[in-house]
Amino acid sequence: MQVTQDSFMQEPPQDWRRYFSFCTDHKVIGIQYLVTSFVLYLVGGFLAMLIRAELMTADADVLVNADGDPSLYNGVFTVHATIMIFLWLIPALGGFANFLIPLMIGAEDMAFPRINAVAFWMIPPGAVILLSSFLFGAPGAGWTAYPPLSLQSPVNGDGVAMFPMGMTLWLVSVIILGTSSILGSLNFLTTIWEMRIKDMGIWQMPLFCWSMLATSIIQMLATPVLTGALILLGLDLLAGTTFFNPTGGGNPVLYQHMFWFYSHPAVYIMILPAFGMISEILPVHARKPIFGYRAIAISSMSIALLGFIVWAHHMFTSGTPEWLRIFFMITSMIIAVPTGIKVFSWLATIWGGKIRFTSAMLFAMGFVSMFVVGGLSGVMLASVPVDIHVHDTYFVVAHLHYVLFGGSVFAVYAGIYHWFPKMTGRFLNEFWGKVHFWLTFIGFNLCFLPMHKLGLMGMPRRVANYDPAFVDLNMIVSVGGFLLGISTLPFVVNAAYSWIKGAKSPANPWQGLTLEWTTASPPPVENFERPPVLTCGPYDYGHADHPDAVVNH
Amino acid sequence: MQTSNEPLFNATATTETAEHESATAVHHGHPDHRLFGFTLFLISEGMLFVGLFVAYLAFRAVATEWPPEGLPELEFTLPFINTLILISSSFVIHQAEGLIKKNDIQGVRLWLGITAFMGAVFLAGQAYEYSIFLSEGFTLQSGLYGGTFYVLTGFHGLHVLIGLIMILTVLARSLKPGHYSAQKHFGIQAASLYWHFVDVVWIVLFLLLYVAR
Amino acid sequence: MNAVTFRIIGVVTGLAVIAISVWYGTNGGWLLPVEGSTEAALIDQLFRAMLVISTIIFLGVQGTILYSAFAFGKKKGDETDALPEHGNVNLEVFWTAVPSALVLWLSVYSYDVTNQVVAVGASGGLGCSVDCPMILQNTAATTGKELVINVIAQQYGWTFQYPGSKEEVGEMRVPKGREVYLNMVSKDVIHAFWVPQFRLKQDVIPGRITRLKFTATTPGEYPLVCAELCGAYHGAMRSNVFVDEPAEFDRWAETELGIKTAQQTQNLLAQK
Ligand code: HEA
Ligand code: HEA
Ligand code: CUA
Ligand SMILES: [Cu+2]
Q1: Ligand 2 atom showing the smallest separation from residue A443 Cα
Q2: Do strands C172-175 and C179-186 pair parallel, antiparallel, or not at all (unpaired)?
Q3: Closest Cβ opposite residue A383 in set C46, C74, C201
Q4: CA distances to A84, A320, A400, A548 from A328, in Å
Q5: 3-state SS, residue B65
Q6: pLDDT tens sequence across B152-177
Q7: From B53, which residue of chain A is nearest by alpha-carbon distance?
């Protein structure tokens, strides 16, 4: 079915309808990713609100069915996490990359526009399949889906085992979303490696391109192993094989190795693009070059590579042999060094700058501040004796939210405030941006800081009921959680209103120096009227001869 | 993509292509990166097999008896012949790739046809081996031994089938005069690269399952 | 404010940060439950050391951000860029070397504590289920002094077998000061044996034996929490571990289980 490029693209709808069409323009696809994943973030966040409602009391009394069975709670946090990872963060960061990469390297589009559109259009079905699992009894084995629990079929009223529809739908949707992520990575790798304009060598390209290069390498190499693990798990679940089923001689710990071989690199898939965006935003709003460009670029690659040999730090208590735990402890701690280089470089970037406290800058500085907390708790978890105590407790839940929310989501918010004018040609309202920031910052810390103590004092994770001694702390967490939920409302209103009626934005509202700021806002379909010419480096702020923007002759 | 008038577009593109010394072929007016992207895809697909092979080795390493009592040994001669067929078919498709560079479209069609035939014979051999085992009650559900055998050979067979379809599609397109030329034959390059990939995966599989046992 | 005063202030704040961190780190008592085992004492010491380091880094980073926010905000009307500073090799070497040294020290210290605390990984061949011979004879790579207890986990309860008694009891009691060695097996899915007061956790995996070793020090009743998602009532899969004085333990063992542990306690006390 050789559909010629042109007939297919005859007259793409120019107005809002193009966002609902199979359009191959990377800018449309980028916005499709961002809007779809944000809606799914609200759904995932709504589930989090249910979790916090349940955990306001020590007993399981909210997410329980008629006879008090709290399986629904397990389903809610499983789908909460699966949405937040596979349907919010990875696609949203993919949306930024799709919109920005071609513009930043002076290209007209991605290397494979049609594959790009196909990769996006795998997201909505993946979401529908995952959410429909609630109709059949949602999968309740966590986003980790460890067998043999994930292989146990649900039992109906009178004790008869039913078809495990919930788990099957989870498997199918994660495999679809994983494949979409692989296709995206092939596109980004080819585009960044092959389509930069002539005199933009790898050491002249923006750091966001470096972080997407590292991220795509991880996606390309790690995701297939998850697909393999899920195929074997699916065969155990549906075809009577016993790969991971101990009753048939299977090895459940092997599943954990295969799962985490992907899932640790997956967390770096979720943070590296965020690192890249922060390295783009801080210099613009501090009016100062990024500090230590090469070190930051190399640290992205080293984090990506090191990320492949740390996975068993999630398995310190799975009966893992002694020597293996020691090895993975050391490799996991080493990652603190390249990450530290990034953090210190960001601090050195804003040091001595002329900081404009735009909403984008507030979230970017909030990112650096909150991510370090999550990183430090990560290094504590990497130490075997400490992890033996806090594994599978709320200390881990605190760590993951400090790096995923305090990290990636703060960076996504910063990215939206920073590039919204370029994407829509209009400004977001700065006042409501600051309201959004402070509500989020306070709600975030109120919600996730107490979780460290809950974990250390003895509250396990993934429980609907807990020791009444922890009620007070859980109440604070729930209040913080609801505040976080409320914090998204001013943002949603601001974004919707500003997209239509916001103040008009010039081509280069923040006087940035990367190529996306040298073309119109929003950019024309072919991105640049004439192929752009590099007149200065991406971070040459403060050089006398370039007052503010690249002269596009 | 480009909806503006074609001529302007081509003008800038060709100048840009001229400067871009690495990419020779042009696809829709800009350098053709499809082979680079396809190679990355095969690396990614390779990682799927790496994962499955590691799982096989993890099971095999701790197994006390392999095959477990009551399950048949893997027969050697037929798969060995199949291996020879598949390896030689890689050289055959390589021929086709060589000939397109000389615009010998007739030769290309011939060698593509032979490769497809050899691929079909390989699949027939696998299917035959399956039929015997299944008749003996050795199935996917026959413990880890059965599970790993059918998953590995099944996934590989699936990839051979996809490769076969690719070759037949390319063959059909080569019937259209001028579709493939010395400058533009991505279809043939991709089919050939994919076939080599499938060949390498089979060699690893053959050594692990049939030789090392 | 000239460079000299700036540097003095810098040093003073640095020392203050370290002092606060050491104070906060060393008596992070309010963060941890009571130390109920020798292992807990060792782990808490390591945790407190990490807390000190983390607090120093935390205050350092947050302080730098706050200071920058106040000192380097854009002045009204000044639309020019800041100084074009692209990097500084010495500084970059410094903040690579120091974290590397810290990470090295932390790994060595963690390695040392790991060896003292968790010298028992999993073992027992695959396919070894609840009635597998090793679990029945309570044999384990022990020196004979330890009190070996079999722990059987299942959806959603814990049962225990003491040496010399086939009976699976629902109560776990251990004597203070004596090394306890657990052989653990699951009848269905993965569970995890966790006593927060002992700071120790080990998954209980169907099809193999996993082990845990500890020495209780503080008498009391501690929660035994299942720490691996095992189904709907995972949150309810809790029990208790009682740490008794040796004499009290012997009396319970004899009356409840009909096994003589008193003799073992005598020769143990004699050896000490
Ligand atoms: C964006 C996501 C993200 C990121 C970036 C990280 C980063 C890190 N993570 Fe985390 N992690 C998760 C997401 C992430 N993690 C998730 C989701 C889980 C739970 C999964 C589940 O079970 O559901 C998890 C769980 C997890 C565990 C398992 C806990 C358990 O279940 O028992 C461990 C153990 O080692 C760990 C370690 C680390 C380490 C060492 C880092 C390092 O990369 C952090 C390095 C950063 C810093 C150290 C801060 C900056 C550095 C400096 C300021 C320099 C100076 C610092 C020092 C010298 C210490 N993480
Ligand atoms: C990117 C990742 C991400 C993000 C952003 C979040 C966001 C949040 N998470 Fe979650 N979480 C995870 C990833 C994430 N989480 C993971 C990986 C796990 C582990 C799962 C497992 O153990 O398997 C987890 C588990 C987890 C738990 C532990 C559950 C358990 O172990 O029993 C809790 C408990 O409080 C929690 C809370 C929250 C809260 C309050 C938010 C808040 O930030 C959410 C803010 C709220 C909103 C953004 C939405 C607000 C919208 C409305 C209120 C109205 C709109 C309504 C509709 C559109 C229908 N999360
Ligand atoms: Cu047993 Cu949770
Ligand atoms: Cu990890």
Answers
A1: 43
A2: unpaired
A3: C46
A4: 27, 11, 19, 47
A5: coil
A6: 999 999 999 999 999 999 999 999 88
A7: A228
